[in-house]
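// run 5 | inverse folding | seed 20
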């Protein structure tokens, strides 16, 4: 059978993040990608200039169309800008018995532009955390979900991961890209223990879509039958290579944040 992954997220008109990054990642990792678009963004490497939300009814219609025909092996959820869309996605996951759901709680773009309305954070926590096999917050997102200060070190990040488990998450990958030091450390926090994934920190401005790419790479691994820990490990390797090669492609303005190189192994 063909491995199929579905991304439920916003569209990035600049092509570096969101639906576009997810589909590139699925393709690069040998998985067929389907999509449900939750929002359209007017966006490039310099920032987001506009957001147009897709109606919750049409989000549900897209989910029904995909799940009624395709055998979806894993789901990645990204940008959900409002409470009504979050509710529609949660209901759709239940309606179709979706499995291996990876939730990337996208709140702010690399440029600093807010992508999730403040009043929707509670709805995201209550409705989607328990339905996801894994959530993948970066340090600021983990802090926002808990209404706490951003973790300053690995111990604090681990403690926040454990508190997210207490809030209903089944597993948490706390991403260390916003941290400091020579290594970027991600922590997979599960009820049974913690797995540490470390890679050298890469000096590049081309980091647009890094979080989207990591979460969709994990979903691709799950779609192919990998365990959660192995899917996270393979995704970390893929994203690190995409970051290392990011300066080989020239996309957008020098003062912007260009994309990672999703196809570095082929181009």
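// decoded
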């Amino acid at each position: 059978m063909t491995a199929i992954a579905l991304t439920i997220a916003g569209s990035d008109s600049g092509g570096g993040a969101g639906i576009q990054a997810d589909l590139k990642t699925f393709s690069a990792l040998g998985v067929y990608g389907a999509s449900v678009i939750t929002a359209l963004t007017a966006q490039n490497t310099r920032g987001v200039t506009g957001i147009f939300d897709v109606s919750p009814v049409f989000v549900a219609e897209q989910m029904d169309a995909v799940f009624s025909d395709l055998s979806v092996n894993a789901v990645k959820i990204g940008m959900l800008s409002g409470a009504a869309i979050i509710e529609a996605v949660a209901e759709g996951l239940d309606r179709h018995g979706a499995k291996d759901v990876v939730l990337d709680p996208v709140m702010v773009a690399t440029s600093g532009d807010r992508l999730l309305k403040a009043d929707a954070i509670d709805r995201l926590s209550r409705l989607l955390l328990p339905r996801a096999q894994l959530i993948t917050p970066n340090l600021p997102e983990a802090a926002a979900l808990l209404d706490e200060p951003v973790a300053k070190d690995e111990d604090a990040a681990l403690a926040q991961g454990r508190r997210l488990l207490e809030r209903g998450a089944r597993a948490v990958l706390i991403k260390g890209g916003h941290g400091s030091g020579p290594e970027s450390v991600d922590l997979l926090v599960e009820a049974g223990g913690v797995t540490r994934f470390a890679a050298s920190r890469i000096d590049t401005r081309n980091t647009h879509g890094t979080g989207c790419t990591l979460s969709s790479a994990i979903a691709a691994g799950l779609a192919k039958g990998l365990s959660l820990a192995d899917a996270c490990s393979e995704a970390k390797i893929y994203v690190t290579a995409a970051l290392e090669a990011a300066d080989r492609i020239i996309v957008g303005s020098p003062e912007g944040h260009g994309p990672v190189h999703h196809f570095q192994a082929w181009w």
